Amino acid sequence: MKFAAVPIEQVPPVNPLADATEHRPLVLVVNDETAVVDTLVNILSEHGFAAVAAYDGPDAIETAQIMPPEVLVIGAELPGMSEVELADAVKSAAPDCKVVLLSGQASKSELLGRVTETLKH
Fold this sequence. Notes:
single chain; alpha/beta; globular
């Protein structure tokens, strides 16, 4: 399946104040680099999402238990916990949550290998 690439400038912004009753999907953004998390949360919020920040795995799990997210965005290589372990823990609290793994270090095959191994258990 192929998807068309659209430059960010062409993505129409969603006005979060347009209708207070309108559903805003909750996105939980997790990374140990605060600047990355804060930037993604701001961008997502400007485009109509209800975005929440977490800066480590335990904080993300606690947040997911209180406010189950619809989407989890994880920056890979979290200290003390793998991104796959975090995804598994959050999906326990929010089974329908979609997971996006971001990595500037791990190759796709390494990341998919870890996911496959985790799913086997």
